[in-house]
């Protein structure tokens, strides 16, 4: 194995696929809604390495579903058999062999082409592969996919075709034996589509099994494929070499007119309004009863297995250790966060600006016994700001990243735990930075008591609220789609605000609502920050008027019903809620990748 500055001779995975692969599947059935809706019915077939295969069919025929099932990304509601070289494989090992490029691949927007591929190499290749080798492989992939000109461009600035090629490149890094692509040409012009499919053909020629869903391919594009698999209404309507397609259709009396695009003809025949339903049924029956080429022999004897892949999970799961996964993901997330305008610049400017505004409006009230009520409203406002300013940027950016997480997790790149930890850790410096800026500006401008321990307590409470907001935002972003999470997250925070003790005091609450104050994060934070300002035997406040009722801090605490409160209870309450949220976030991530 070479070192970083070792010899130039490296193994380029693109050239390294030598053994042949046959992916065979038989009697695959896929149903949803507790089995009430059948999407794939008894589909069988085989794909061979060295050949480029297309899955075609009308819209809603089940092409993407077939691809999801064959790639092992979807195993719920699936019955049937999948064998690789006539061997059954367990799910984990299968996912290591297979790369799946879904229709709309999400890329991390602020990461450049080269960085995206290097991170993919770090996550998908064993740690034994040196940095030098990884860089060489990434450069080879960039050259192969024609991405040299945009190698240093962030993914968000790439054209549609470049994004597609980059997403293909990510899959190439691990040198998979079997590759699936769902409509890699969608949204591209004919020239770019031709280019992409030509790349796929190169990948197949290098010894891989490459299968792609294509939507209405032109004649030129179709010619690039060696094999065709036609899906109609969840059933197979043709499988085999492209050249044999017209003859097979002609056998049942379906004649493709001369000069007619064969793909258009096939899709027309496969559509629900086909004028020759009897002939179509005959064709489907022929396909159903045809033996699977080079695949299953008599292993499945026609009875669908309850699970298409073996359940047992192999022990060596990930290409790299959990610590490495954590380090790589934290670096990548941190880089993405630093370059994200909303998560950094806007967040910092927001904290500084609002600190200045609050400081100006509530100028020098902190030590004035005549303005205690106003100061208490400042404390509540500060807490509200910290929570909303730290949860909303996360809510707005995180859902987009969820699909990256799901895809990479299913490609066996890392565990849920390492992803979860890296997410929290990578966003932490931004959150603490923002909260600290706001705290310093607002604390001094509002004239809060200048005692380091009280200032530290106030800051500690603010950081805990920032932490809470960050995890709450992640949770909202992971549970709900981007269309609803910006509404749900703030709305669900409001009950906690209501039971904070600021808007209505504990004694005034109906007995039914009193327990809710014990789970209100704002109650603990409000009590903690108020205690830091007025507790711990604070000396008398100044008084700017003739008489100040709240000159004695003890009276303020009595008014707030906090004379017997202990700040450690508030710290414990906040900690408990934050830990509970982390557990919920972890469970929601696990649920997401089921
Ligand atoms: N989870 C699901 N619940 C209910 N119906 C589903 C589900 N997944 C797929 N379907 C239905 O199954 C059928 C096949 O869907 P699929 O996405 O596989 O079609 P497709 O051939 O890829 O279509 P298109 O070319 O338009 O993308 C569609 O009618 C779709 O509505």
TrEMBL record:
What Pfam families does this protein's entry cite?
ABC2_membrane (PF01061), ABC_tran (PF00005)
Tell me where in this chain the ABC transporter domain is found.
23-258
Stored InterPro entries: AAA+_ATPase, ABC2_TM, ABC_transporter-like_ATP-bd, ABC_transporter-like_CS, ABCG_transporters, P-loop_NTPase
In which compartments does the protein localize? Membrane
Presence of keyword Nucleotide-binding: yes
Please indicate if the UniProt record lists Hydrolase as a keyword: no
- Give the record's keywords alphabetically: ATP-binding, Membrane, Nucleotide-binding, Transmembrane, Transmembrane helix, Transport
What kind of membrane protein is this, topologically?
Multi-pass membrane protein
Superkingdom of this entry's organism? Eukaryota
Matches recorded under PANTHER family: ABC TRANSPORTER G FAMILY MEMBER 28, ATP-BINDING CASSETTE TRANSPORTER (ABC TRANSPORTER) FAMILY G MEMBER 16
For this chain, the family text in UniProt reads: Belongs to the ABC transporter superfamily. ABCG family. Eye pigment precursor importer (TC 3.A.1.204) subfamily.
Which named protein is this? ABC transporter domain-containing protein
Q: Which organism is it from?
A: Aedes albopictus
């Amino acid at each position: 194995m070479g070192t970083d500055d070792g010899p130039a001779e490296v193994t380029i995975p693109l050239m390294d696929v030598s053994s042949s692969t046959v992916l065979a599947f038989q009697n695959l059935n896929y149903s949803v809604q507790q089995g009430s809706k059948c999407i794939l019915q008894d589909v069988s077939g085989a794909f061979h390495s060295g050949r480029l295969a297309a899955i075609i069919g009308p819209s809603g025929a089940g092409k993407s579903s077939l691809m999801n099932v064959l790639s092992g990304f979807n195993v719920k509601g699936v019955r049937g058999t999948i064998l690789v070289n006539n061997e059954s494989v367990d799910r984990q090992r299968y996912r290591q062999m297979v790369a799946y490029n879904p229709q709309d691949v999400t890329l991390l927007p602020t990461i450049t082409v080269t960085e995206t591929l290097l991170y993919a190499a770090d996550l998908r290749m064993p740690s034994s592969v040196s940095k030098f080798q990884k860089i060489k492989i990434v450069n080879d992939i960039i050259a192969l996919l024609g991405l040299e000109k945009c190698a240093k461009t962030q993914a968000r600035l790439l054209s549609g075709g470049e994004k597609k090629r980059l997403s293909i490149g990510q899959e190439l890094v691990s040198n998979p034996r079997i590759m699936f692509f769902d409509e890699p040409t969608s949204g591209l012009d004919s020239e770019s589509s031709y280019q992409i499919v030509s790349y796929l053909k190169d990948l197949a020629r290098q010894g891989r099994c490459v299968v792609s869903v294509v939507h209405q391919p032109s004649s030129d594009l179709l010619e690039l494929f060696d094999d065709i698999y036609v899906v109609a209404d969840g059933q197979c309507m043709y499988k085999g070499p492209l050249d044999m397609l017209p003859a097979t259709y002609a056998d049942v009396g379906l004649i493709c007119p001369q000069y007619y695009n064969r793909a258009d003809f096939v899709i027309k025949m496969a559509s629900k309004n086909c004028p020759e339903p009897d002939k179509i049924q005959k064709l489907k029956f022929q396909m159903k009863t045809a033996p699977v080429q080079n695949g299953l022999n008599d292993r499945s004897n026609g009875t669908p297995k309850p699970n298409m892949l073996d359940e047992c999970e192999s022990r060596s799961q990930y290409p790299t250790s959990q610590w490495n996964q954590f380090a790589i993901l934290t670096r990548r997330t941190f880089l993405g966060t630093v370059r994200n305008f909303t998560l950094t610049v806007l967040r910092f400017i927001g904290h500084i600006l609002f600190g200045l505004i609050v400081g100006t409006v509530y100028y020098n009230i902190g030590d004035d016994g005549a303005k205690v009520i106003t100061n208490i409203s400042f404390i509540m406002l500060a807490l509200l700001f910290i929570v909303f300013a730290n949860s909303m940027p996360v809510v707005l950016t995180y859902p987009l990243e969820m699909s990256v997480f799901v895809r990479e997790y299913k490609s066996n790149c890392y565990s849920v735990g390492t992803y979860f930890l890296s997410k929290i850790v990578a966003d932490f410096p931004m959150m603490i930075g923002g909260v600290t800026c706001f705290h310093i500006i607002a604390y001094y401008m509002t004239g809060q008591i200048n005692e380091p321990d009280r200032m530290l307590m106030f800051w500690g409470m603010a950081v805990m609220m920032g932490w809470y907001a960050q995890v709450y935002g992640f949770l909202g972003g992971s549970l709900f789609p981007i269309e609803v999470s910006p509404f749900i997250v703030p709305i669900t925070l409001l009950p906690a605000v209501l039971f904070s003790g600021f808007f209505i005091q504990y004694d005034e609450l109906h007995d039914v609502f009193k327990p809710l104050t014990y789970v209100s994060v704002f109650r603990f934070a409000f009590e903690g920050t108020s205690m830091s300002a007025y507790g711990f035997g604070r000396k008398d406040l100044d008084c700017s008027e003739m008489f100040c009722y709240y000159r004695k801090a003890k009276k303020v605490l009595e008014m707030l019903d906090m004379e017997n409160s202990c700040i450690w209870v508030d710290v414990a309450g906040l900690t408990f809620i934050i830990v509970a949220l982390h557990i919920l976030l972890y469970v929601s991530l696990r649920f997401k990748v089921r």
